[in-house]
Structures are given as structure tokens and as C-alpha cells.
Amino acid sequence: DVRFPNEVDAIKQAGGKVIRLTREFKEDSHSSECALDKDNYDWSNFDAIIENESISVGEQNKILYSLLKDWGWLELSISQGLEQ
């Protein structure tokens, strides 16, 4: 959960990925709630965008699983777990 551009940058610089979920839960104009909105931030900085306004949590999870698999992160976490 990130709320500001510098947090997105820090995650990406550390080798992480940032996924934007588009569903809005409430309208709030506080900077911590809108700094990453489309009109305030360049969404091309996100590694993926999931438009989840009209899909179920299960469908959202399938998309997330597919992204993790495409990025090779599932195999990585499984092999790391076996080494411990």
C-alpha cells in the first residue's frame, strides 16, 4: 500500500513492483488519498494496472497470480522456501 510518488520510486529502486488497483472506495481529497490518482500522477510508472471496479476478488487474485508468474516471482519464492 503506497500513497505517494516517492514510495513508488523507492519500491521500484529496491527491485520491487507496484500494481495499481483502480477501484475507488471513497472520495477523499487529502493528499495521501489522491497523490497517485490519474490526474496527479503518471500511471506509466506502475508495473501493472488492474481495473478492478467490476470484477470479483477471485478474478482480481487470478490476475495478480498471473502477473507474479509472468515476473518469475512465484518460482523464486518457492525455491527460496525450499532452501530454508
Protein described:
The protein has a two-stranded parallel ribbon. The chain is flat, with a radius of gyration of 15 Å. 45% of the residues lie in helices and 7% in strands. Strand 1, helix 2 and strand 2 (48-50) form a beta-alpha-beta unit. It contains 4 helices and 2 strands; from the N terminus they run αβαβαα. It has 84 residues and is mainly alpha-helical.
Question: Quick gist of this model?
Answer:
This protein has 84 residues and is mainly alpha-helical. The chain is built from four helices and two strands, in the order H-E-H-E-H-H. 2% of the residues are buried.
| Average pLDDT rating | 85
Read across the widest sheet, the strand sequence of neighbours is 1-2
Helical percentage: 40-55%
Q: Can you summarize the main beta sheet?
A: 2 strands, parallel
Q: Which regions have little confidence, pLDDT < 50, spanning 5+ residues?
A: none
Keywords:
84 residues; two-stranded parallel ribbon; mainly alpha; flat
Topology:
Blueprint: H1 5-13, E1 19-21, H2 31-34, E2 48-50, H3 57-70, H4 73-83
Parallel strand pairs: 1-2
